[in-house]
Amino acid sequence: MSQFTDICRINVKGGDGGAGCMSFRREAYVPKGGPDGGDGGRGGNVVIQASAQLSSLIDYRFKHHFRAERGTHGQGSRRDGKNGEDLVLKVPMGTVVRELDPETQEPLFEIADLTRDGERAIVAPGGTGGRGNTHFVTPTRRAPTFAEKGEPAEEHWIELEMKLMADAALVGMPSVGKSSLIARMSAARPKIADYPFTTLVPNLGVVRAGDYSYVVADVPGLIEGASEGRGLGHQFLRHIERTALIMHVVDMTGGFEGRDPLEDYRIINEELRAYAAELAERPQIVVANKCDVSGATEKVEALKRAAIEDGHEFFAVSALTGAGLQTLMLAVGERVAELRRELANTPDDSAPVEQLDEQWERRRRERDRAFKIVREAADVWRVVGRGIERMCVQTDWENEDAVIYLQHRLQRIGVDDALEAAGCKRGDEVRITGYSFAYEGADDDPFVGLDDEPFEE
Ligand SMILES: Nc1nc2c(ncn2[C@@H]2O[C@H](COP(=O)(O)OP(=O)(O)OP(=O)(O)O)[C@@H](O)[C@H]2O)c(=O)[nH]1
Ligand SMILES: [Mg+2]
Fold it and tell me: Are residues 182 and 82 in the same domain?
C-alpha cells in the first residue's frame, strides 16, 4: 500500500552550546574573590514531529538546512547561559527518519518511524554548554583562569520518507467500478476490465477537489465470505483498517449476474462487520455507480433510503460520464478534512513522546568515543575521532591551563597510550583537526584525582 512514497533529504544541526564563563567574584574590600563564572546554555535540539495536519513533505522540497538556536554564554556571578530553543520540524504521520552515512550518503540507521500524531524524535541534539571556571577548582588550583567553550553541535544529513496513508478507501463487489472511479478522480491509472478481480494490488490516487487534497485507495473487490478468506479482498481488509473513511461503491446495474444493488450493499457491510465490528462503524459514504445505464432510477431510490437510514451520505454517480463526480469529490474532501481535524484534536495519551532514540544514541556515543592514530610523517601523528576533535574545539588554546586540562582529558581516554603504542616519541608533533602540539609523553598528570568525565553521560 505504500507504493506512493515521498522522499527528501535535509541537513540538520542542533544549536551549539554556549561558552562557560571565566570570572571572579568582586566585592568591596576584597581584591579578588573566588571563581564565579556561570555555565554556557545548552544548544536547542532539532526535533522531527508527526502532525495529522500535514499530508506531504513539500515544506522540505526547497529548504534543506535547519539549525536550532544556540545556547548563550555563561556570565559572572554564577549566571548560567540560556538554553537554545528546540527547532521542531513537522512531518506527516507515516514518516520514517533515517540517518545518512556522512561519506556515502546512503541510509545508515533508522532513527524513527513516526506513525502517531504528535510523536517526535530528536534528530540532531544540541551541544552541551561549556562549564564555567567554578568547575575547575582543585585543592591546588583555587583560582582557575579558564573555562570550557561550548560544545559545537553536530550536523548531518537525514532522510525523510513519507509512506502515504490513504484517507479513504473504495470498497465494493468486483467490477462495480472502483478502479474506474479512482481513475476519474485522480491521476492514478489502474487496470480496468470487464471481468471481476481486475485489481490485484491496491492503487493509490491523490484527489484534488476545491481546496481539498486527499488520498484514495482502490482495493480489489470483496465478495460474500471475504472476511473468511474468500476471493482476493480479504487480505486487503487489513489495509482498510487504517483509513478513516470508506467509500462504499455499489453497481446499480447489478453486473452480469443481475445482482440486486441493495443486497450487494448489505453483503459488503456484513463482510466488514464480520471482519471487524469496528469497520462497520467506520464513517461511510455510499456511492451508487453506473447511473448512466437506463432503468436504474428505482433501485437508486431504494439504496439511497437504506444508506440514509444507516446514517451514511449518499451520492449517485457515473464513472463513465463523470456525472455527479465533482459533488462526490468535494463531499469526500470535506469529510476527510473533518476526520483529520477530529484526529488532530483527539489527545492521544498513548502516543509516546519520543526522546532521543536510545539505540541511535548508543551508536552515536560509540562512534564518538572511537578514535584512531594516523602517522602523517616520520614524527607527525594525527588523532582522528569525533569526540576528541570536539574536545579540542571546546578548548581555549590561548589559555595554558585550559590546554593542560585538555591533555589530561586525552590521557584519560587513552590517547597517550595509543600514541605510545603506535610509536610516537616525546617531542613528536601531534595533530587533532586544525590544532597541533608537541607530544610530552604519558608521564605525570598535573590533574590526577580531579573528578571529571571525559565524555558527558
Ligand atoms: N456503464 C458504466 N460502466 C462502468 C462505470 N464504471 C465502471 N464501468 C465498467 O465496469 C467494469 C468494471 O470496472 P472497474 O473499474 O474495473 O471495476 P472494479 O470495481 O475496479 O473491479 P475489480 O477491480 O475487479 O474489483 C469496466 O468494464 C468499466 O468500464 C459506469 O459508471 N458506467
Ligand atoms: Mg478494480
Answer: no
